[in-house]
Design brief:
Blueprint: H1 4-16, E1 20-22, E2 25-27, E3 31-34, E4 57-60, E5 71-77, E6 103-107, H2 108-111, E7 120-125, E8 128-138, E9 158-161, H3 163-168, E10 178-184
Parallel strand pairs: 5-9, 6-8
Antiparallel strand pairs: 1-2, 3-4, 5-10, 6-9, 7-8, 7-10
């Protein structure tokens, strides 16, 4: 007969495997979004972007891990230029931004209903530090539609950055795409 003292911890581990628990705060997926097949030629795959896959389930989030002086995140590459893989104009200012300008989009929870619009953040990665301006939301709640260039929802820990940010961090161009980083507010 199995010892219940062993089964209870195993059950608790399995139960918690479906969500993120950071500093006493839970950030669980809000729902699952079912991918659809993009119309021919409608998914922009620039900058290593992925297209939604029909029938695949994508988790969506309204939250992100708490911000600290060393907030862990994944840096991804995005073009904020008109016609780029970022889709429409930036949510903060309704403008497009040159790939040579250090700008970012933050996951929905960190974007926090536009509260970080126009603010600078400090990004640490590849042994370098740089700053960038928040101009957009990397939508963690929706995706797989024309508004999102038929790309999946962003993860809840994404800093989606222009080419200028990758260059400032000294990442060789053939390694652009995804990078483990930390970021913080300047204060």
């Amino acid at each position: 007969m199995m010892n219940h003292y062993i089964l209870v911890p195993i059950f608790l581990i399995l139960l918690s495997a479906g969500h993120v628990h950071v500093n006493g705060q839970d950030c669980t997926p809000s729902r699952e979004l079912t991918g659809t097949t993009p119309p021919a030629g409608q998914c922009n795959t620039e900058d290593y972007s992925n297209c939604c896959v029909a029938g695949q389930q994508y988790p969506t989030y309204t939250c992100s891990p708490p911000v600290s002086s060393q907030t862990r995140a994944i840096l991804t590459l995005n073009s904020f230029e008109q016609g780029g893989d970022g889709g429409g104009a930036s949510a903060c200012d309704g403008q497009y931004h040159s790939d040579n300008t250090p700008v970012v989009a933050l996951s929905t929870g960190w974007y926090n209903n536009r509260s970080r619009c126009g603010e600078q953040i400090i990004i640490n990665g590849n042994g370098q530090t740089t700053t960038a301006t928040v101009v957009d939301e990397c939508d963690s709640t929706e995706g797989c539609d024309s508004e999102h260039d038929y790309q999946p929802p962003c993860a809840n820990n994404t800093v989606d950055a222009s080419q200028a940010v990758w260059e400032a961090l000294g990442v060789p161009k053939d390694q652009w795409g995804q990078l483990q980083i930390t970021w913080s507010d300047p204060n």
